[in-house]
Amino acid sequence: MTTEDRPDSSPRPRERITDPERIRALAHPVRIALLDHLGDVTEATATECAEALGESAASCSFHLRMLEKYGYIERAERRGREKPWRVRLADFDMRPDPAVPGSLRAVQAVGSLGLESEFLRAMDWFSRVDREPDEWVQAMTFTRSSFWATSEELAELSRDVQNLTNRFAGRHADPSRRPPGARYSRFFAVVNPEPEADR
Length: 199
Fold this sequence. Notes:
Blueprint: E1 15-17, H1 20-24, H2 29-41, E2 43-44, H3 46-53, H4 57-69, E3 73-75, E4 85-87, E5 92-94, H5 103-128, H6 134-139, H7 151-162
Parallel strand pairs: 1-5
Antiparallel strand pairs: 2-4, 3-4
Helix pairs in contact: 2-4, 3-4
């Protein structure tokens, strides 16, 4: 899982998260939606988040505090009496650690929720694709591949995939870096071996 650039575009270190409680803090659709939204808009208040997500301000406020508690977001600079939030981590690597009991099950829970969220988002795109200009239809892709690889090779491929969108870094925080005609776009990929029992 990754998040976008800090509002001031300064780099933040990539953080590996293995603590089960901290991982499970993301196992809620509203929290994932809030984290995505804050990455999209750079910063927002609980009320602004509520309007964007179609949730109540009280619900968003609660989930924002939970995200802050576990280190995913932080308070941005006050705007008068308003107290906006922003994403704290530029990039985080959430994967289980065999030495940390419960981390695998926590990643399973968050991974399943994330897959469902991305599946629904992609299905929404395909349901509306007939209303899109042809240039954008031709620009998208749905790709599947199968191959044989060692665990080391698969890990290297995973790192390559994680870094594919680095060339677009900074465009959230600085609209002047977006070329004319640019649209907000999404990338989703899963790299995994086939289950041993199914081979």
